[in-house]
Amino acid sequence: MYNDNPTLEGLNKRIDEEKQGEVFFKESAAEGEKFFYIESYGCQMNFSDSEIVASILAEAGFQATRNMEIADLILINTCSIREKAEETVRKRLRIFDKMKENRPGTLVGVLGCMAERLKTKFLDEEKLVDMVVGPDAYRDLPKLVSTAEDGDKGINVFLSREETYADIAPMRLDSNGVSAFISIMRGCDNMCSFCVVPFTRGRERSRDAFSVVAEANDLYSKGYREVTLLGQNVDSYKWENPESKEVVNFANLLEMVAKVHPDLRVRFSTSHPKDITDEVLHTMAAYENICKYIHLPVQSGNSRVLDLMNRTYDREWYTERVEAIYRIIPDCAISSDIIAGFCTETEEEHQETLSMIELADYSMSYMFYYSERPGTLAARKFEDDIPLEVKKRRLQEIIRLQNQVSFRHNKRDIGKTFKVLIEGDSKRSDQDFKGRNTQNKMIVFPKKDGLKPGDYTWVKVQDATSATLMGEIVEK
Ligand code: 5AD
Ligand code: SF4
């Protein structure tokens, strides 16, 4: 989900492998044509934002290309979540700078979280870029491009309290034609002490519920069969209808999108343990097409560390929420984000994170060691005092245990039959399809004539690794 280091090769391969949604990527330019090339890093929200950027640029007369060499505009949509993500971006910028030697006049723009965090530092210190555009300023891109074309630096890092890009139809860039993201809110008001997001993405705001439903309808009519509703904290989604004054909460929105069509699967990310309500869980249970999968980041299994992290829940609260999920939706899978070695974390506290992996029975987790981010509450208040080797060792222990728990989770599925939405060919063989079950587990199985990506089929699981299920199509 978080992509600190997608190699360009990987990126291009993915684009080649997957059927393009509505975008036609051109590889060579004719006279007068203008092209943009965009790379995205970080969270799904960032990938989703790149689709908004693409749409804005298309309006302004630019076409999409995967060939950096013909691009007039090279954009990099950046992430600041960990130091490693930023290092990757710096490396890419140096490569783009080399490119410009052969094609003077090519403009390079830094978009997204790192643009917001570093603002003019990119222009002053690095001299590598022509434009710096924060996540709420994408509408301004055509103007900033003109400014940069005139030889001035184009910069807009203004954060908005209102911008949700609700009226912009995203141009599906890296799509398999089956599943798509829909951004339902922007920003974050939570102030977790380790996190840079409130500073890079600003205040939380929810998008017009009807524009979300309209986007889901449009996707369904174009053949898409799965949408993922995206927000930093979807459970605090709240939109007031300006006419009726009716308030739509996340459970209401989920239901509205689920009703678009029974064959349109609905997923969402990310849930916050302090905010996820029984109402949301009951809505999930009531609709077959709302997927039985919740990404519920715990971060730490210890209450003292959770308090330092300013997560506003403790171990007991989190445990109760996990129990509520399994009670209300018995077949639900839960996944997590975990940080190893946060400031002052002891060995005993680390053990409590390990025991939470067992207790919550996560199907998978995204696992990191703590990386201090400038400007965050933790950077200002606490010393980053856990030595790197200790952080790395604790992370290894977390990863090892999670792999075991994932493997056990997957082995329990052997012999079961699942409804699978076919996404495309498997990575290894064009004789096999890959697709997901409702619990978000990837299943690989031999193809059968007459079936294509976007179709549902029933698959009986015969084997499992810690990451994938293998099976065979069966009649249901
Ligand atoms: N260091 C390490 N991991 C972090 N995350 C967020 N900030 C940091 C940080 N400073 C992780 C959290 C979050 C995920 C998106 O990234 O686990 O849920
Ligand atoms: Fe990275 Fe967070 Fe920004 Fe997403 S919101 S791109 S994870 S810093």
Topology (SSEs and partners):
Elements: H1 8-17, E1 34-40, H2 44-59, E2 62-64, E3 73-78, H3 83-102, E4 107-112, H4 113-118, H5 121-126, E5 131-133, H6 141-149, E6 154-156, E7 179-183, E8 185-186, H7 197-201, E9 205-206, H8 209-221, E10 226-230, E11 238-240, E12 247-249, H9 250-258, E13 265-269, H10 278-286, E14 293-295, H11 303-308, H12 315-328, E15 333-340, H13 347-360, E16 364-369, H14 377-381, H15 388-411, E17 417-425, E18 432-436, E19 442-446, E20 456-464, E21 469-473
Parallel strand pairs: 1-2, 1-3, 3-4, 4-5, 5-6, 7-10, 10-13, 14-15, 15-16, 19-21
Antiparallel strand pairs: 8-9, 11-12, 17-18, 17-20, 18-19, 20-21
Helix pairs in contact: 9-10, 13-15
The structure holds 5'-deoxyadenosine and iron/sulfur cluster (SF4).
Iron/sulfur cluster (SF4) binds at residues 2, 42-43, 45-46, 79-81, 112-113, 196-197, 200-201.
Molecular structure report:
This protein is an alpha/beta fold and 476 residues long. Among the domains are: 34-156, 3-Layer(aba) Sandwich (Rossmann fold); 299-412, Transcription Regulator spoIIAA, CATH 3.30.750.200; 417-473, OB fold (Dihydrolipoamide Acetyltransferase, E2P), CATH 2.40.50. It is 35% helix and 22% strand. The chain is built from 15 helices and 21 strands. The chain has helices at residues 8-17, 44-59, 83-102, 113-118, 121-126, 141-149, 197-201, 209-221, 250-258, 278-286, 303-308, 315-328, 347-360, 377-381, 388-411, and strands at residues 34-40, 62-64, 73-78, 107-112, 131-133, 154-156, 179-183, 185-186, 205-206, 226-230, 238-240, 247-249, 265-269, 293-295, 333-340, 364-369, 417-425, 432-436, 442-446, 456-464, 469-473. Strands 2-1-3-4-5-6 form a six-stranded parallel β-sheet, sandwiched between helices. Strands 17-18-19-21-20 form a five-stranded mixed barrel. A three-stranded parallel β-sheet has the order 7-10-13, with helices on both faces. Strand 17 (417-425) and strand 18 form a beta hairpin. The model is unreliable at 4-22 (pLDDT under 50). Bound molecules: 5'-deoxyadenosine and iron/sulfur cluster. The site of 5'-deoxyadenosine has 13 residues, from strand 15.
